[in-house]
Amino acid sequence: MKKTIAGLAAFLLLAACGPESRTVGDLPVITVFGEIEAEPTRAAMDPDVEPLFARYGLVFEAAAELSWPQLAALEQHRIDTDYPAGGPVRHFSGPLLRDVLGLVRPREEEIVVTALDGYQRSLARMTLDVHDVILAIRVDGDPIPLGGFGPAMIVWPRAQDQALTGMPDDDWVWGVFAIEVRAESTSPAP
């Protein structure tokens, strides 16, 4: 637990130490890597200064970084749903996850979403095309904070989509900071 907290603190400190031309609002919220066609906006992962990526085995030669303003500039969708399941109804908003992925033009069908605590879920892009899953950046009208569900959260429309009725919370990833696009694996989701 202490290592995870120390890793998170190091990640946040390093994220804040970017080039002087960047403002805090321009800092990356999500790093997308793997089989993408988008022009890279950052270099290879450096395990010496990016311990969280290293700890979770997120190694890449190049990636696309997406900032909060970039995510907020996409069409925003609202999902009113209980989270956790059976809990209070919250008002989540953000772009459709398929629109976020559209920014990086994925070449493969599987994405692996990683949270700050190391929780990972594998999702098929086809599922995202069928259901209006959002990458929430706001909850109850306010930006999702770190220490809460932030910086971003995968939210499913289980209250609006009958096919998702009774869905458990396993694929509701909060604290999302990385998305890997890769070929579909034959092993079950973590």
Helical fraction = 10-25%
Major β-sheet strand ordering = 2-1-11-5-6
> How many DSSP E strands?
11
Question: Quick one: CATH class of the domain at 28-39 and 68-182?
Answer: Alpha Beta
Low-confidence stretches: 1-22
Q: Tell me the series of helices and strands, N- to C-terminal.
A: HEHEHEEHEEHEEEEE
Average pLDDT metric: 87
CATH topology of the domain at 28-39 and 68-182: Sulfite Oxidase, Chain A, domain 2
Protein name: Oxidoreductase molybdopterin-binding domain-containing protein
Keywords summarizing the entry:
alpha+beta; 5 helices; 4-stranded antiparallel β-sheet; 5-stranded mixed β-sheet; Sulfite Oxidase, Chain A, domain 2; about 190 residues
Can you describe this structure?
The chain has a domain of 127 residues: Sulfite Oxidase, Chain A, domain 2, CATH 3.90.420. Helix content is 21%, strand content 27%. A five-stranded mixed β-sheet has the order 2-1-11-5-6. It comes from Maricaulis virginensis.
Task: Please give a quick description of this structure.
InterPro entries: OxRdtase_Mopterin-bd_sf (IPR036374). The chain is α+β, with helices and mostly antiparallel strands and 190 residues long. Helices cover 21% and strands 27% of the residues.
Set down the secondary structure blueprint.
Elements: H1 2-15, E1 28-34, H2 51-55, E2 63-67, H3 68-73, E3 77-82, E4 89-94, H4 97-104, E5 110-115, E6 120-124, H5 125-130, E7 134-136, E8 138-139, E9 142-143, E10 153-155, E11 176-182
Parallel strand pairs: 1-11
Antiparallel strand pairs: 1-2, 3-4, 4-8, 5-6, 5-11, 7-10, 8-9
